[in-house]
Every structure is written in structure tokens, then in C-alpha cells.
Amino acid sequence: SVVVCCEGEGTSYTAASRDRNGGYLMVYLPQGQRVTLDLTKMSGESAVAWWFNPRTGTASQIENAVSTSSIASFDPPTMGVEEDWILVVDDRARGFGVPGVAR
What we know:
By secondary structure, the chain is an all-beta fold. The chain contains no helices and nine strands. A hairpin with a 5-residue loop joins strand 2 and strand 3.
């Protein structure tokens, strides 16, 4: 229910998941395609967004805070076949750590 645009199909299908309280959401982009999300499904006033690279196991934070009061589009660092990415968006107030790093 969070993906507004560009779900794709087949090998380019975008899959998304979130917790029921809106504390976080994760979106898998199998071909590094642009995605538009309804961030009003999230809790809190702002969020922290990360690009997680499943090929290397590393994450990089998207610089600016993300408002959870609107729809937003995200472009991954690279696009195309074999350029899959996971977009992780966390409620800033929850203080989640870097994706992929054990606490």
C-alpha cells in the first residue's frame, strides 16, 4: 500500500514491506528503478532514508530528512539490470541504526 508508482512486473517487480505501526518500511528495487512512495503510512513527522546495497552489504544514508506527510520519489544510486537496491525508510524518532549493521 506504500508504492504509488512504478511497481513494475516480472523481473522488475518492486516489493515493499512495512511494520503495522509505521515505524519503518523497506522497498526492494530489483533493477534499481525509481520508486514513488506514500510516506503518510509512516509514523512520526520525519524519517531517515537509506540505500542498502545487497551486493555489498553496505548502506548509505540519504542526506536530508524525509517528510512523512506526503508522497516522495526516490532514485537509487545506480539503475539497470543487476543493479538491485533496497530502500529503507525509518521513523526518525525510533532511532534505528544503520541497515545491515548488527547492534
